[in-house]
Design goal:
Rossmann fold, 11% strand
Amino acid sequence: MKLKCVLFDFDGVIADSENGVYEYLKKAFLPYGVYLTEKDKLSYIGTSGIQCIQNTIDSNHLELTVEKLMEEKMKLGNYYEDSEDLAPMPGAVELLQLLKKSGIRTGLVSSTRSSFILAALNRMNMISYFDVIICGDMIKERKPSPEGYLKAASLLKVKSEECIVIEDSPTGIRAAKAAGIFVIGYKGSEVLQNTSEADIEIHKFSECLDIEKLNSMLK
């Protein structure tokens, strides 16, 4: 099977953003006497965070709605538009350039809202590297649903078995596997997650800078 498409997650794959994003959420909860932990962080990563926020509100018996908490969080700013630390993951641009040069389509599939993702990609001058971008507010069901990955493959007119996904979270890996796509578990982000359900694991994008090797993964 010839590789025709590589689909990327954003948080923890294209940018090492997960800690930065989580800090804004921690600050939003502080006025309510809630101190989110490192353990809590893993439940939020790879999701839209809405259900996790509701769970935190319920478990702390807060007279607070998700909408109100999100409103307070927005007042603090956000990592994607405001952080000076935002930067492409080492080797990500080089891999995307190689894929483009080799005629392999590229896509980004994230559970994060489109305004944040597009702002971050624009700040990093990376929008042009992707043939399709699917974000959490563009689909009915976010990861671990396969909807985002299936929609990206459909828009790119490729079959699932002709694709590779690069993900760093169990939630994202399950979404890609449910879509019938070969998954590379990326372990180069600051927040290390369980990627054991992926087909293979890598620690650096430099491990993917060989098109023949990528093609061989689909055989």
